[in-house]
Structures are given as structure tokens and as C-alpha cells.
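Chain A, query sequence.
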Amino acid sequence: MFLPRGLVPASAVAPPLAVPRVAWLCLAAAGVALAAWLATADLPTPTRWIVVIFALAVFAWCRVPVGEAYVAVAAALAASLVLPTREPFAAIGDPTIVFLVAAFIVAAAVGASGLASRLTLALCSRARTVTELFYLISGATLVTALVLPSTTGRAALLLPVFESLRGAVGRDRRTQIALALLFPTAILLSAIASLLGAGAHLVTAEILARSVGVQLGFAHWLLLGLPFALASCSLSTFVLLQRFVPAAERRRLLTLGAAPLPWTQRERVVAVVLGSLMALWLTEPLHGVSGALVAVAGALVLTAPRFGVIRFDEAVRAVDWTLLVFMAASLELAEALVASGGTAWVPGALSAALSGGATPLAVIVIVAAGSLLAHLVITSRTARSAILVPIVVGFALTSSGDPTLLAFVSTAAAGYCLTLPVSAKAVLVFGGTRGVTFAPRDLMRLSAWLLPIHLVLLALFAVAVWPPLLALVQVGGRP
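Chain A, predicted structure.
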């Protein structure tokens, strides 16, 4: 979802590049292309070109201040020219894209009804102390991840909640800074709970379906992601309270209670439709109706004339079309990489490098650490998964690992993006508000604790929690 007018940070608009920098970028890109070409000397020529295109796309996503969607479309176009037998941009009509379009329309209806803000404030009003308030905010934010398909959209939706609570927590500056940090932390780390939590999750699910035939539906993702999101958000909230809020402030009593307002007709309609959607998504293995069709039906109900809560054309304008174009193009690029055999090159090199006796735990730690640190150079969450997941899946196949497990580890780790202000738009939204908020040094201080904690947490889940859960359910006909 797009940021509301006035919330787009100035840093998001790239200034014109100076000529010397353009020259250096061109030289660096040429070096990347040459290195990729020479490193794949044993592969067929079309495969070498696909690897070069992929390497240049990664370089552009990391270093060139051009929109990720533009780079992805250009790379997908080049890949289609190299492999003309493939139908170009077939992913635009993929059910994953349809699912996300419908989910954005549903999210627009939720925002228009005011239901999310009502439920969040109602939950927070139950807090008796600052500590309880922080944990209730974290829990309420996690719930929004189940139905809203964009971390940026959730940030825009919860910003008024933050502004209304900022004064209620008192005048202690450290507590207000911690509250400002809590919202983007909970928004970003809770996203892994749901298939709709971030566009990167749909990219991962689609890559797994295309490359290894594993279907991760809404219920499967919830089973894997919700326990990790609960643990991640709880630990992060604990760290925030312990490291940023004085002990006396943590125990201070609050008076946030307010007289409940009567529910509006629009809120009732949205609540009923959301409950129905959740029930149908969770029971998809039983009734067999795809999540995309369920989402489209819900979107049509919420935008129906006279009955709906928002006009269809208004809801369509709330769709993040840039994200959708980027997802479709990145899926095309990933598909070209798989079809050409390019995914076997990097994983093969990794397998050779780790053939000296690397244990499964060591492989998990390497995948988790690399994915955790990827946000320092690739600011787009979806781009990180589009780059990492094909490589991780290919590596798992060449090393007899579990591609679903390693892909989920990588996706969960890539969702961590709290170190720098530019690491995520949700961080920019809350860091750019008027009044007391956090500074870049506060983010660095928080990340110094949370990043190693999440590395340990990912390793623990990958070894002890996720394998039994994957064995418990049949994912796409495979355990």
C-alpha cells in the first residue's frame, strides 16, 4: 500500500546522479558482468547470459538508485530475449498476483472502515502499565499481519494509533523513543506470521511451487510462521523494554480506558467478511477453493454497490501496482534462472565450498546469517527473497537439504530490516514523525541486540520447531 500523502520521505526520491558517479557505476556493472561471464565458463551460452543478467539486476538493486520494479522489468525483458521460447511476462496473470491485488482491495476496505484502529485502540486500553501496553501493541500488530498485505500499509494504518498513544505513555523521552521503535519493529517482525504479511512471502511460495512443486498455502504458512512471529515479537518487545525504558517507567500505571463507541455498519460488514475469509483460507485443504478465488470474492463483497464499504475504483487506487509489477518481473527472472539451469551454478559452488564436512546446522546458520545481513545492501524485502530464495532452493537440492525449510529460514531472516533508517519504509514512517521519535543511533543500538538474538532464534526453529511442523502436514503432496 502506498504511503499517504505527506508520509513519503524525501530520501525516497532519488536525486540526479553526478556524472563521475554514473561512470563509476558503469565500470562496476561492467566488472560484475565480466566476473559472472568468466565464472560460468563451463555453462551453455544462454545460461551464462541469464546469470549475467541476474548478477546485473542484483547489482542494480544494491547500488543503483533506480526503482526496484524498473530494474526487475528490464532484467525480465532481457531474460525473455535470451530465452525466446518462454512466454514473456506470463507471471502477470499468475494466481499469486491476483491474490495480492484482491488482498490490497480488502486492506483498503479495512482501512476505510476504521476497524483496525478500533480494535488496536480497544486492546491497548486494557493495559494497566507501560509493560503491558508494549506487549499488547506487539500482539495487536501481529494480528494485522494476517489480513493486510503490506508492511508499509500497516505502518500507515497504525501511525494514528502511535500518535494517539505517544502522549498517553507520559513525558519520559526514553519511553516515547521506545514506543516509536516498537511499532516498526512489531510491524516488520510480525509479517512472517502470514502468507499475506509481505510480498516476499508470495514470491517464496511461488518459487517453491515452480521449482520443487511444494505448495505453501495460507494455512501452511500460518502454521510455520505464527510461532516464530510470536517468539520474535515477544523477545524484541522484551529487549526494547529492558534496554530503552527505565525500570520505574516500565512499572508505571496507565489510565488509557475510554468509553467504547458503538460499532458502525461498515465495521460490522468488514468484520464478518474478514472472519469468513480467514476461515476459508485456513480450511483450503478441506474445500479445495484456491486462496486467490476466496480473496477475489471477498474483495467483490466489500466493494459491492450499496452493501460494500468502499467504491471499487477507490479500492483499486489503493493497490500497490509498483509492488505487483516488481513481483511479476522478479518471478519471471527467477523462472528464467531455473529454466536455463542458472540456479545450479551458485548452489554447486556453495556445495563444493561446504563439502569439507559442514553440518546441517552450519548450513542453516550460513543461510540465516546471510539473509539477516542482506537488508544492509538490498533495501527491498521482496528483492531480497527474489535474489536469495532461488539460490537457497538450488543449494538445498544439490546438497540433499530440505528446500522448503531453507527457503523459509531465508525468508524469515530476510524480513529483519531494522538496522538503518532506509532498511524499510515502515522505519522511515515512524522515524520521520513530528515530536519525539528515534534516531539512527537508536536503531543501531536496538539491532545490536536483536540481530544476534534472531540468528539464534532462526537456528533453534530450523532445528527443533519447523521440521516437525513440516512433517505434521502434507505440503503440496509432500511432507
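Residues 440-472 form the longest helix (33 residues). Confidence is low (pLDDT under 50) at residues 1-13, 475-479.
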